[in-house]
Amino acid sequence: MFNQISNNDFAEIVKGRRSVRHYDENVKISREEIGEMISEASLAPSSANMQPWRVVVADTPEGKEKLRPLVRFNTAQNDTSSAMLLIFGDTQCYLYAEEIYNAAVEQGNMPAEVRDRQLGTILSMYPTLPQELKVEVAKIDSSLFAMQFMLVARAHGYDTNPMAGFETDQVAQAFGLDEERYAPVMMISIGKAKEEGHESVRLSADKITFWR
Question: What pLDDT is stored for residue 14 in this prediction?
Fold first, then answer.
């Protein structure tokens, strides 16, 4: 998908993205395509390449019914979207460190000695970090994934809406995840817009940039 997008196309993807609340209920995105979009979004950067994002996809009537009481004022997105993605940050993402770094060596992307040095640092540091810091790092990295997913979805021809309005203290347990390990980050609805999202105003660059 990415190698088919020109610079002009990418600019349109970024400028054309809207937050959509009402979707065409007749449009169903296949799990294969959602999986492809998740894989493409996973090219996002992360601290030490630990890739802490974890995704629960509620795309069945049963999954959405379970989610509905937890989405507060976002029921329209839940009810009409093709799927709801629940983004979590894995505070024990370091458990995959050896798998990630061994694969990097096998694929010729990293010398073995660099792997060994990096793994030594990661496996001695990450497990001992305070839980609050683990959550903060996982949320920052998972937010990069979430933003990239929304742009990827737009490139695939779909619309999205990121949401923070949900029961963060209940959603992990509701979907069978360890709430001590998995920190809820946001939800993203995805589908085809039935009602176009409104274009929103952005502050100009000179108001948000400090040159020194």
Answer: 67
